[in-house]
Amino acid sequence: METIFEKSNGADGINLSNEIKNINFLPGNLLRTKSVGLPQLSELDVMRHYKELSDLNFCIEKGFYPLGSCTMKYNPKVNELLSSLDGFNIHPNVKDEDAQGILKLMYNLGKALLEVTGMDAVTLQPSAGAHGELTGMMIIRKYFDTIGEKRTKVIIPDSAHGTNPASAKMAGFDIVEIKSDEKGQVDINALKAALDSDVAAIMMTNPNTLGIFEENVKEISDIMHSNGSLLYYDGANFNAIMGYTNPKLMGFDVVHLNLHKTFSTPHGGGGPGAGVVAVVDKLKDYLPKPFIDFNGEKYFRNYDIKHSIGSVKDFCGNFSVLVRAYAYILMMGKNLKHATENAVLNANYIKEKLKKYYNLPYDEPCMHEFVITGEKQKEENGVSTLQIAKTLMDENTHPPTVYFPLIVHEAIMIEPTESENKQVLDEFINTMIRIAKECKTNPQKVLDAPHTTPVKKIDEVTAARHPDLNFKG
Description:
This protein has helices at about 1-5, 20, 45-55, 75-85, 100-115, 130-145, 165-170, 190-195, 215-225, 245-250, 260, 320-330, 335-355, 375-380, 385-390, 420-440, 445, 460-465; strands at about 120-125, 155, 175-180, 200-205, 230-235, 255-260, 275-280, 290-295, 300, 370-375, 400, 410-415.
């Protein structure tokens, strides 16, 4: 390597000798024969370049981020400090006796999560919400196989997250979709009609994707259990009930929690996440192995799980996310329920202010999020939900989730979270009202949005049909 460096630092670029070209572990046609053409830049130039790139991105530190169903709340900076402490920076394959502090943290986090969910046993392995769903469905599948029942179906409401049917299908189940009733909740009659001896479980989110609490959840639980079926709780919306009720009280048997949603790690970058899974007592022997255990003297990774589905992830999960979640829980303590209170209050406040200007498909008290629509604006002025979202980008606000859930046409799903103060909420409300008025008085301005972003209006149809996949330097 010393010879390569000696022969490649000339002003005219890299000139590789025949001797170097004949390196036996690299074919000659793969070796570079001329300069890469990289610019010569100072450290300050490089710093400014990346700062400019950063400024092009939108983040929770920059403005309001009401991304429904994704819980983009703040991440206390102390969490970042704690998760980067040197003591946590060890190889995951070290012996248990050399990782007692880390294992203790994970054990205590598991205990805290059991307390807030009401469940009996927990695994920290899954690395995302959908990964937690798949893990839960595999546990349910293994449970029925073990007790000798070959159940093949999973019931899923039409308002569910799209990952629910995907996860159940990947675990080998057939999907049975049931419709929502006029209140946006599970239709009890449709549920009863879909139920038979082949049904293994129902997957539910409560509150559901419309932000509405399933008021018949106990009846649903009784119906399912009387059929010998189980209930799976999608914990994506857990921040709407935390501290007030829990999945166990509602009758659920398996639950996943998105730690990167409810417990303070915004996941707008696509990860990493943590989708821990907790179960009732009769399912604890089916959890992935190892799970973190304590024998009174030592914390250890327990591989002795009778009917375990096996490991679902290398090591024990995304540890930095686990640290952030544990730090958040310790900081909040019993005040976790205050986060729930504020999330629900904020959502209802915005909903009541906006329902005069946008369609509200389900005029019910909401929980942490709600859905309005741009149907009125589209029918009267030709302005779609997508164009309303683009207009918000000019207002230092990330657009809410749009066109989801699929059962609501022109849907706009808004989740303010507990983190935002009234001034921010009022600014957002006023902006949404102004956009609604502009749709009537100056619809072309909305149709041409965004106006101030680095990337302006694009031809999305052409971009989707004819993507440019070539990189040009």
